[in-house]
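Weekly puzzle thread! Below is a chain. First person to post its structure in token form gets bragging rights.
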Amino acid sequence: MTMLANFSLDNFRITETRSLHNDTDYVSVSIKVGAKAPISSTRAMGDVNNGTHQVGLSVSADIPADNTPVVFSYVVINNGHSNHATLEKDTEAALTALGNAGVKAASTAAGAAIGAALGASLGTAAVPLVGTALGALSGWLVGEIGSILFANCDGVVAAGVRIYTGAQLLQQTAGGRKLTETVQHHGTDSPTGCGSNSVYFTTDTISTAAAIQTVLDLNGQWAAGGVPGPVISVNGNSIAINMAASHRPSATGSIVDSSDITVNFPDDKTYTATLQKPGTIKWSNNSTWTKVASRAV
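Winning reply:
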């Protein structure tokens, strides 16, 4: 039985926005398991002000029951002046680099020493494994993502990293238990004239569960309205949809059960869908996608 780790940024609460009225936020989450490619996802939260904002953005990945390092990371960026696709690409590239550094640190250190090893590999102060990593990560993230973060008073408002082994995760989440953490982030220093730093509280959750087997294979190309276009990739219980053929941003979602999925389209909204054999996705807006038969080569 394949076991999956699921990492979700459940919500964030703002007690003080950096901007006069709203922060324009983007949220990214990522899982890196050993030498495997990271699984990442990004969502635009739009203009948000003080209060609690539900996110529910999650990713999942296969985990082994051994000492393979598993790195969970997230970042929330206030950035209303950059192209969404560029911001998504750069942010997820930064989380990939962070995941690689975390795996390296966990492979060469143990226990509390992992934080120091990770900080050393990033060229920053030691990153705590529990609590905010923003102070140690902010300067590093700016270097990785680029100067767009601080144009027009924008910047990182929350960031964190949690590191376990596959065996630790399975032990600590046995019986349906969840590892939930709420962290306060004081924001990074704003340029002169931008007002005080934003103050955020993030809540994230880690859980493990058996992989869900769907009634049909979601992977591959689908036809929307009879026109081939969307390409679906499934990793664990996470779904990624490449919408480039329709000149739309990528969508992300998750498998709910064997015949139901939910997907967020950044330029639209979140839809649920029912999977119908032999190859149909029936969406909650009454549209349908049909599986494009793969061609022999």
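Puzzle host: Confirmed. Bonus trivia for everyone else. Residues 30 and 40 are 4 Å apart (CA to CA).
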